[in-house]
Structures are given as structure tokens and as C-alpha cells.
Amino acid sequence: MTELEATLEDMLAVERFDPPAGFTRRRPVEADRAAADLDAERFWADAARDLLTWDKPFTQVLDDTNPPFYTWFADGELNLSANCLDRHVSAGRGERVAFHWRGEEGERRDVTYAQLLADTQRLANGLRSLGVAAGDVVGIFLPMIPEVAVAMLACARIGAVHNVVFGGFAPSAVRERMEVSAAKVLITVDGARRKGRRAEVKAAVDAELGDLPALEHIVVVRGPRTGGDGGASEPAASGSGKEPAASGTGLAAGVGTGASEAPMTPGRDVWYDALLAGADPDCPAIPLPAEHPLFILYSSGSTAKPKGILHTTAGYLLGATYTHRMVFDINPDTDVYWCSADVGWITGHSYIVYGPLSNGATSVMYEGAPDYPDRDIWWQIIEEFQVTVFYTAPTAIRTCIKWGPEYPGRHDLSSLRVLGTVGEPINPKAWLWYHLVIGGGRCPIVDTWWQTETGSVLISPLAGVTSTKPGSATQPLPGISPALRSEDGEPVTEGTGVLVITKPWPSMLRTLYKDDKRFVETYFSRFGPTTYVVGDAARLDADGYYWIIGRIDDVINVSGHRLSTAEVESAIVAHEAVAEAAVVAEPDEQTGQAIVAFVTLAGEQTGDAAMEARLREHVAHRIGKLARPRRIIWADDLPKTRSGKIMRRLLRDVAAGRELGDVTTLRDPAVMAVITDRVRTARDDEE
Ligand code: PRX
């Protein structure tokens, strides 16, 4: 056991971490809590006046007369792009860098607020010239380049509703999302690169989407190119380019290298740069009603049919602005912020684009993969840009643990002051590794709980204020009212229950696009129209801290005892031999359900009977014999979505001996083939 492993092992016993002694918070927040507890509506109204710039001040705050169809600030008017751009430029901050863009071959492009504003105005006029009007849907399918932010802001400027699709999705998924939202224009890219390979995106998009009746135009951005004509200012030494192409056909998929000309259909397709060059540079931001639809985002998740989550302008922007500033303690004059998510997810919408820009912050935007050209690229970027606030996902942290501490060890990470996580419960071992290896023990960690539906973070520590417990998202933010309910709707004040939010909040989804019925059924049918059902189970401890257990269907019932897959996984990955684990239930005649664990071992270790016995004993030791997996399946990798979430749904299917469900969001289909085979062999051996 290395010294680090021994320290981690010792620290697993520490339950509570007070804010690091040397941490100085820059934005006081205590008064907000008191104000929100006294009168949440008034607190939000004050925050909306304070943080947002209005063309027409609102007089109404919350309208709750027709639950669950709430409105906020409904008679007020504002423009979101003016809040993200014009107000900073007119305050003399136009030369501030909005994005330090970093290409995967080492290129850099510093985009200022003034430049973003100039491009946004031209594109907004360009879109208008293509017939886009307020309320029309515009699809966006772009890699991580600054143009993705310009595209979103240009839509917001003219009141068009954007529908961003994650660049890792296949064109067929883009088609589905464009079709159901009847997008009029799609903004995409000629080709994208990933790990030195190039994917011909436009050609693939044409093949899938060419015949969509509502789609009138396709705007094509010239993507970054290795060898450098993609607007990159400083091409650096190029990488090896020897990595194999990724599978699939999304933007991230490589199908070859070298230059290519995208096929362009005259009359329908237009180059982005030509559209901007021909457009009037002035496009005044039009005042829009607070409840004007801002975007649709199809949620990743367990259901087969994606849900078109609809957010509106003012409430959403308020949530993103307030939480970005307060949770991460952002000071736009001094911080350099980096969220490693993709813009195609809600995390990217709220915490790469809208929250940071509304706050006038400087961010890093990174095009590439975390292991190209080498596994230290993230830490190199943090050192290069002196990043102070870093926000990532637990799955990424666990991957870094697997790779080993030598990669971050090559870089000076002393600029960091706040670390964040999002997307899934973080197991204490990963939390501690993040705390020690990345944060040097001096950075508060904010474990932020929220969803596509919530628009912004709802439960999270406030950096430097909240004492943290590894694995707990801690407490609700000011103005947010979560609670737990038992299966039959009784309040649970301590223990495990179904997580609900009992009062509306400004950044909540307003409906599912063109499907009010499904909106009500999904979120507001179980406990009535005023109680938002999150879909997660959680535990509330004696200190009033929330521990998110996971989606409701991730709870396993063994002999009538509820066990959380997250809890069992956390125990398994706390073992030094383990890199990653996923736990699901398999049906069992005797106990109802039994636990199956899919385990990836660290380094070169192999899974054998002795290791299995050790792990089972380890789980028994940490949780109890009841939680011991009945079966351990060794896996070289776990099935993940393109955003890195483990697809437990597929593992449940395998464990139950069912046909695999929808695999279209799976990043690497080969992983499931191996696992299915191993499960079959294990069963055959048993019989
Ligand atoms: O189960 C919760 C989990 O992710 C779900 C929301 O997924 P999505 O809409 O894709 O948004 C992800 C990014 C906000 C939640 O229902 N989740 C998210 N954050 C956490 C989390 N689970 C535990 N801890 C978190 N911090």
C-alpha cells in the first residue's frame, strides 16, 4: 500500500470536514439564508433585481395559482444575451476574457466579452435573415468551441429557442431531437476532431437529417483542424494522432484524418463565417417577457423516450447566476473558472455558458479528451491558466484515481481554491482523493446536487461556509425547500425517503416541450401538483444533511432491507484493489433481490476467486453481511453514456437475464458484449 493509499484509508474514518482554515470566502452569503428562511419569494425577488438587468421591472414575483404551471417575474422584461454580454461591455469590461479556449492540439484562443458580443449580434442577424423569429426552435450540434456559446446567445438575443444536442450523440439522435422539436435551423460543424482524428460531421448530418420537413437551413461552422485553419491562433506541436478512432458516429468519433470539404446544399446550407460576414453588425437586444422560452434540453436518463425539458428566461438565468456566484464563491475579477462538462448537457448550459457569462467571469473552455495527448492534460491546463475553481464529475475523478496520482503530480495545482462535483453521488474515497491529490487539502469541495429539470444547483455546500461530509451534498441552498417522503407520502425527518421539493423555485422546468400531460404525470402526480418529485431517493441524517442515494430504481431490496447501490458501490471502490464498480439487483426467489457487482480492478490486477472473497468480506465489513454481492463480474470497463454516467439500466437487464434495452446512448457497445458474455459464463458455471 502506498503512503497515499494509507492516508486515504485512515481518512475514510473522518466523517466531517470543516471549511479549510486558510480559505477566505469572497462573497458573504449568511444574510441570504436568513432572508430566504424569512420569506423565500421576497428573497428571490430581491436577488432578481440585484443580479439581473431588466428592461421592464417586474411587479409580480411568483404566480402559483395554477400548479404545477408556475411563473416567475411574469410581467418583467429582459434579454438574456444582454445580461450575459452587453452589460459587461458597457461597464467597461469588454476586454475581459470570457473564454480561454484550449484546443486539443495545444491551440489557444482568448475570446473577450466584446468579441462574443460582436459575433453574437452578427449571428443573431444572420439567423433572422434565414427566417428565424422569436419562438422558433434552432438546433445546435457543435463541439466544444466558442461558437457554441455564440450560437446559444444569438438565439437568446432574438428569442429563438435553442435545442443543443451533445456532440457525442450520433446523428440519428440529433435527428430525433430536431424532429420532435420541429427545429427550423440547425447550427453544426463541417468536421470535428477527437484525439487527433477527424469526423465528417456535416456529411453524417446530411445523411440523417436531410429530409426533415421543418428544417429549412443548416449553418456550418468550420471546426478546428489539425494543421491549423480553424481559427486557432497558436498551433502547438501536434499530438501523435495514433489513438484508435472512437466508435460511434458523433462529433467525438474519428473517421479519419486530414482536411475535407463538407457537402453544402445550395439554398439550404450556409457557412457560419459567410453568414456573419454578410450580416449587419448591430443587433440590439430585444426585451423579452420573463417567461419567454429559452431552451429545450432533452434529458439523458433512464427512460427510453427523451424528455424535452423546457426552461424559460428570467427564472432560469437567476438560478444559474445566483448559484454559480454563491456555491463556488466566484469573484469575476480574480477567479479563473473551469467546468469540464460538455455544453450539450445542463451542466454546460448553466455552468459553462449562462452562469459564468452572466456573472462576467473568465472561464476555460477545453475542446478535447482528458487523456489526449496524455493523461495529465487536465492538470496541465489548470497550471497553464492558473485555474482557481474547478468543477467536474465523480466518474472523472475515479478514472484519474485509476490512472494514478503521478499525472496530477507533474503539475503545480496551487492556483486552485474551490473544487466541485456533479452528476452522481461521490463515494468518500474519490472525495478524499480529490481533496488531497487535486485540492492539496486546502480547497473546499462542493458536491452539487441538481438535475436538468432543476436548472441550477439546489442542494450543495457553499464553499468555505458549509462543513462537508464526504458523500453528502449537505444542505439546500437559500430559497430551496427539499423534503423526504415515505412511499405513502408521509414526511421523513430522519432516514431514507423519496426526495421532493415542496415549493417552486425560479429555475425549475416549466413543462416538457409540447407535452404538459407527461410533465404533470412525471413530476407532479405522486404527491399532488405542488410537490415536485425528483426521482431520487435520499437519506437525511441527524444534522439535516442530505445524502443522495440515487435514482429511485437504483435501490435494492434484499430480504426486505433496503440497500443503496451507491452505498454498496462506495464500499467496493473503497477497496484499494478496485478502480470502479457498479451494483445492480438480480431477481432472487429467496431474498427478492440479490446484489450483483460489476467491478473494474485498478492497474494490472486480475479478478479471481481469492479477490472475490476479499471484496465480499470487505463489503461485509463496511456495511454488513447483507450487502455482500452474491456475484462479482469482473469487467475491463463499465457501460457508460457519452457523458460518462454508468448505465446501470443495462447492467440490470444483463443481471436479470433480459434482452438489453435501448443502447443508443452507450458510448462503447463492445463493453456490454464482454459483460454479457461473462455473466452467462458465470451462470453456466453455477449450474
Ligand atoms: O440522480 C441525481 C444525479 O443526477 C440526476 C440528474 O441527472 P441530469 O439531469 O443528467 O443532471 C446531471 C447534472 C446536474 C439526479 O437526479 N445527481 C446529480 N448530481 C448529483 C447526483 N447524485 C448525487 N449527487 C450529486 N451531486
Model description:
This protein has 687 residues and is α/β, with parallel strands linked by helices. It is 32% helix and 21% strand. The protein contains 20 helices and 31 strands. An eight-stranded mixed sheet has the order 12-11-8-6-7-14-15-24, with helices on both faces. Strand 4 and strand 5 (108-112) form a beta hairpin. Helix 2 (30-38) crosses helix 3 (40-51), helix 3 (40-51) packs across helix 10 (313-327) and helix 10 crosses helix 11. The two termini are 38 Å apart. The relative contact order is 0.10. Residues 229-250, 252-258 and 300-304 have low confidence and may be disordered. Adenosine-5'-monophosphate-propyl ester binds next to helix 11, strand 20, strand 25 and strand 26.
Give a concise summary:
This protein is an alpha/beta fold and 687 residues long. It has 20 helices and 31 strands.
Any key phrases for this structure?
alpha/beta, 687 residues, binds adenosine-5'-monophosphate-propyl ester, 21% strand, 8-stranded mixed β-sheet, 31 strands
Mean pLDDT: 90
**N- and C-termini, Cα separation:** 38 Å
Shape: globular
Give a count of the beta strands, DSSP E runs of length 2 or more: 31
- Helix count equals 20
How would you characterize the largest beta sheet?
A: 8 strands, mixed
Bound molecules: adenosine-5'-monophosphate-propyl ester
Structural class based on helices, strands and sheet pairing: alpha/beta
Strand order within the widest sheet?
12-11-8-6-7-14-15-24
Q: Mind telling me the C-alpha Rg?
A: 24 Å
- Helix percent reads 25-40%
Regions with pLDDT < 50 over 5+ consecutive residues?
229-250, 252-258, 300-304
β-sheet strand percentage: 15-25%
